[in-house]
Specification:
mainly alpha, single chain, about 50% helix
């Protein structure tokens, strides 16, 4: 698990602090969420406080700190609108 993080960090090493979001996206793409041990290692490798990484990971809705299923289903709880031309 942590070898993949090392690979991601090396890929973006020339812009270390500016690419935390890209690294988090890569990590989430690989694991389908952001595992805590991986975030700790990322913090250590980038020499960025863990709190900063968590603040980014929790600010954006598309990041998840909990494992998700392979397929996501989103349900809209608003009033249904009939499609144009469909009056029934």
């Amino acid at each position: 698990m942590l070898q993949a993080v090392e690979q991601f960090v090396k890929q973006y090493e020339h812009k270390r602090h500016a690419v935390i979001m890209m690294l988090l996206q890569d990590i989430q793409d690989r694991y389908n969420y952001l595992p805590q041990p991986v975030l700790r290692e990322l913090s250590r490798m980038l020499d960025v406080p863990l709190g900063r990484i968590y603040s980014i990971a929790t600010y954006y809705k598309f990041f998840s700190l909990k494992p998700k299923g392979r397929h996501l289903c989103q349900v809209r709880l608003g009033a249904a609108r009939p499609q144009e031309g469909n009056h029934g």
